[in-house]
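We emphasize that the prediction below concerns an isolated chain of 256 residues; any contacts that depend on oligomerization or on bound cofactors are therefore not represented. The input was used exactly as deposited, without trimming of termini.
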Amino acid sequence: MCSARKALLLLLLACGCAQAQIEVAPAAPAASTASAASAAPAREQVRQAVERVRADPLLGHAETRKTLRLKKRDPWEPPEVGGNWSWVKRLVEFIGWAVSSLRVLVWVLGAFVVAFVLLRIGRWVRARGMPEPKARAALPSHVQNLDIRPESLPDAIGAFAAALWQRGEQRAALSLLYRGALSRLVHVHALPIRAASTEGECLALAGQRLDAPRANFFGRLVEVWLPAVYGAHMPEAAQALNLCREFDLHLTQEPA
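Result of the prediction step, given as a token string:
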């Protein structure tokens, strides 16, 4: 490489000298024999220098060089392999599939654990007997046009009904007893009586949900109420007053 650089430098110097002599030649005295003799060797020197440069093995042929450089690629992309290394690619693909499957499995297990915990909490709450809110809005205010709201009734229903009977208001006294009985059955004993329930339906619910003494008392009251309201047949005074005295005994304001 050093010899090539030297030859190239000699060539440039020779070309420079020849060009200088050619440019000076026209300004010299016309057709001088000495100038012509000195110019001819300069061209010959240039030719010889060019030949030497061409003959130099370091400058007279083409040279091809190969260099290595890194190829830019996605760091998450698996390397391209072939031949005997194809199993590496398959292994990388299998690992990716396994990771995706494991992620789905983790989500499924997490949902299962959350559902199991919520189920256990629900069982624990029911086991503790925590009170559930009562649907008070679903309770009827009237049954067959009879007002059964507790605020529409006196506290001592039996005593108030007895006073009405003794004043000669027998129908009002029996109506108060029946209204009071329905109100206590709905609001105290939680019988599913509805606004359209008939006397027979109320009597059947009382026989299913109440104990024997209360169910028996309500049955005797209905037997007196039906003839009085639909047939105007009033009971004997002793029978009516007896129902008034037993009312607060069997149908209290608080559940037993």
